[in-house]
Design brief:
The protein is mostly helical. The protein contains five helices and no strands.
């Protein structure tokens, strides 16, 4: 049986991470499953091909405490930084469209 599921197709080739990008990727490791649901796939599939501005916004987002990030990803509150809020919504929309 042949499947044509997008999940089984080859991922887009990622560029080699710089030292700074590797630091951000390491920082993205969180301890909450709820945050990992959103952040891990973003790191693996989108971060390295994101625009430099989006990468800076992502790095800024990671400076927030985990409880605050959880509130943002679950729509309990919004950060004051509109760029971080836009990125949170972009990641949520992308992740939910991707499925489990």
């Amino acid at each position: 049986m042949t499947t044509t599921n997008l999940e089984t197709t080859s991922p887009i080739s990622q560029p080699e991470a710089t030292t700074e990008q590797r630091r951000i990727i390491y920082q993205a490791r969180r301890g909450l499953k709820e945050l990992d649901f959103y952040i891990d796939p973003y790191i693996k599939e989108l971060y390295l091909v994101a625009t430099p501005i989006e990468q800076l916004t992502f790095a800024e987002m990671l400076t927030y405490e985990d409880p605050d990030l959880l509130d943002y990803f679950t729509n309990q509150s919004q950060p004051e930084d509109k760029a971080v809020w836009a990125l949170v919504n972009k990641i949520k929309t992308w992740r939910h469209a991707k499925g489990l």
